[in-house]
Amino acid sequence: MKQQKENNFWTQLKQDNPEYIMALAPMADVTDNPFRRILSEIGPPTVYWNEFVAADGLAHTDARPKLERLLTYEQDQRPIVAQIFSGDAQNCRKAAELCVEHGFDGIDINMGCPARNIIKQVSGSELSKPEHRERVRDIVEQTRIGAGDVPVSLKTRLGFNYIDMDWVEFVLGLQLPVLTLHLRTKSEMSKVPAHWELMTEIREMRDRISPGTLLFGNGDVTSVEHGKQLCAEHGIDGVMVGRGLFTNPWLFNESINLENVTVPERIELAVRHTEYYVQENMIDGVMNKNFNLMKKFYKVYINGFPGAKELRVEMMSAKNLDDVKTICQNFLDNHVE
Fold first, then answer.
1. Is the pLDDT reported for residue 5 higher than 60?
2. pTM strictly above 0.90
3. Are strands 286-287 and 106-111 parallel, antiparallel or unpaired?
């Protein structure tokens, strides 16, 4: 399989960021447009990934309108990569064509999701099993056809039930512009520390098999400084951050000390994020997405100060944006001078 034409943004991004690239991980119902809007304001990554979207749905007109909303992004989020998933190569091609129409800078194939409903579709981390090698090759090839000159990358894990270096070697052989490895197996989920001890060996494998592939590591990255250290230690090109943002949404902004973020700033950010969420999902006066899905972010912003737990409990009972605003204003009036 020949490497895709280098008519892509990755080469320039690497030139502009030779020491390290900080990437936003794709997380379902997390890295949506409202959250990315927040990150673009308080601390943007080097490159954004959107939350993954089902290629099967994008490929069929009946399901497409609702799923296509997940391909929304703002221009200040560039460069941005659309991530799709499917076990059907033809659907991946059709989905890639649609992502190109939406103007994404890159397209990424998810072969690492451990969710049962994804695995049942012979997608996500299921594709890392040895018996699916030819299917994987076909998916990548058809996605490239659909993408044209837009670069196609891949994100996966170290294997399904065990660490499988044959799988890593195989995906490196696909000559991708970027390969992101979540350094755990599907079976390990996130229950064990990421296997960063293997990354130098993997990078050496990359150098031998596909030196043109940018290599990103994913798992347990806690700060930009930590990401820099990992890139320098292992000789890789970047790191991808996901769950670390739940501890510190300002993670990508090195100028922000979390301890210096004030209570009003935290509360204002929670309200602003809620406003963006409602703006994004309100259609003709009706929420297109469950309001309760927004509430998982309240523990991200509302913590580390007296009364935070009680405020979160109240916010979790909110039914709409007005409720959130009222609850937060009452707290500020009564607890913050």
1. no
2. yes
3. unpaired
